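Problem statement: downstream parser choked on a complex file, so we are re-checking the raw output for the pyridoxal-5'-phosphate run. The parser issue turned out to be on our end (a line-ending mismatch), but while we're here, posting the original submission so the record is complete.
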Amino acid sequence: MNDTHPAIAVAELMRLLMDVHLMEWDEAWEITRNTMAYTNHTLLPEALEMWPVSMFRRLLPRILDIIYEINARFIVEISQRWPGDNDRIARMSLIQEGREPMVRMAYLAIVGSFSVNGVAALHSKLLREGLFRDFAEMWPKKFNNKTNGVTQRRWLAACNKGLAKLITEKIGDAWITNLSELEKLKEFADDPGFHKAWRSVKLANKVKLARAVQKKTGVVVDPGTLFDVQVKRIHEYKRQFLNVLHAVYLYDRIRRDIDVVPRTIVIGGKAAPGYVMAKNVIKCINNVARVINTDPAMEDKLQLIFYPDYNVSAMEVICPAADLSEQISTAGKEASGTGNMKFMMNGAVTIGTLDGANVEIREAVGNENFFLFGLTVDEIAELRGQYNPRAIIDSDKDFSRVVQLLQSGHFSRFEADVFGPMIQSILEPSDPWMTAADFRSFVDMQTAAAEAYCDVEHWTRMSILNTAASGRFSTDRTMRDYNEDIWRVEPISLPKR
Ligand SMILES: *Cc1c(COP(=O)(O)O)cnc(C)c1O
C-alpha cells in the first residue's frame, strides 16, 4: 500500500477471500496479513486519514462489518498482551470514538500488513517512536525503513546530458545502471582540468535556466551569480517563507551598502487549491520579487524569481543549474524529500536542516560539504511550550529590520495587508513550524555558503563530491531494498539484445 490512501484494500481483500472465494475468516486473515505491506509517506496529520463510520455504513456496509470484526479480534490481542490497559485499547483501536466515530485508516493498514516502513531513516525512527509507537511496541519486527531514491536515468543521464557525458568520459558509463560507480569521481575532486570542465557544464546549464526564467517571467538573471534554488510543493512545513525572510535580509543589506555575494534566488512550487496560507506565500514571493527585481540597486547583486507552473519538466531544467539546494523544512516534518537527491546528483550543495533524507545526504557527503543549520527534532520538542518568537525577533536587529520592512507595506503598496497572515503565523508562540527559531542560524549558514561559493576551487570540489556521494540515492538501491526485505520476487535476467 503506497501511502494510507489504499488502506481499505485490507478489508476489501478479506471480503474477496470470504465472499467470493468462500474462505473462513482465519484462512482469509492469514493470507491478507501475509500479502499486505504498508509504506507511510508523511508524519503530518493528513497521514492519519480518518473516514466517518457513518459514511462507510452508507456506502460500504460490508467493508465496515469486516473492519469491525478485524478490530474486535485486534482488541482481544491487545488485552491479552496488556490486560486492563484500557487507555492503550482506546489509543490503538481502529475506531476513534466520539460524536462522529471515525475509522483510523493508517491503523487498519498497520494491523493488516506484515511490513510497515517509512521512507528515510529519521522518518522511520519517528514512526516507531512517535506516531505508531504503540504498534511498534506490539510488533517491533514489522517496522522497517526504505530510504527513497530517484532514478539517475531521468535525473542525470536524460536531464543533464553535459554532466552525464563528462562523467562517462572520466569513469565510464556503468553509473547508469550502478550509481555507486559515481564514487570514482572522488579521485578527480582536485583535478584542475576536471574542475574546469565541471564548471563549464554547470555554467551552460545555468545559461539554459536563465533563458527559461526570462521567457517565463521576463526577468533577466545573470548566470554568473550563485543560483540558490528552492522548488517543491508550497507548504508551511517546507518554510518557503523562511527563504523569503532571507531574501528580504539580503535586500536590506544591499540597500545599506553592505557587500553581499551576487545571488539569484529561485523559488517554485504549486499550492493545493484550498490551502490559503500556501497561496499567501506565493503572493508574498511575487510581491517581494517585484520590488527587488525593479530596484536598480539590486542589479548584479540580487534577483528573486518565482518560477511559475513548477512540474517535473521544469525540474529537469532547474536541478542541473542549481548551485545551492534549499532543504529547509522544520526538523521532523519532511518524511524524506527527493528533490534534495536530484539536486545533489547534479552537483548542487545542500543548505538544510536535519530532516528527512537530508540526514543521510549529509552522512554520505560529509559535514564539510553540506551547510547544516537549524534546530534538531529533539530541540524543537524541548522548545515547545516555551517558544517566544517575539523575543527572538526583538533581540535580533537584522531580523527586526526584516519584519519591519514586511510590515511597513514596502512590498505591498496599495494592497490590502497581504503579509499580515504570514507574519502573524511566525509570531505565534504556537507556530508549529518554528520559523523564527531558525532564522539566525539560517542566515549565518547562507553567509557561509556564499563565502564558500566565492572560493571557486573549493566550491567545485564540494560540488563534485556531492555528485560522487549520491550513489545510495538511486531508486535502483531503493527497489533492491524493498525486494530483499518485503516483496521477495525473483529478479529476472533480460535476454541480451
Ligand atoms: C522531485 C519533485 C518533487 C519532490 O520535491 P521535494 O523537494 O522532495 O518536496 C516535487 N515536485 C516535482 C515536480 C519534483 O520533480
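For whoever reads this later: The pocket of pyridoxal-5'-phosphate is lined by residues 232-233, 310-312, 315, 337-339, 342 (CB under 6 Å).
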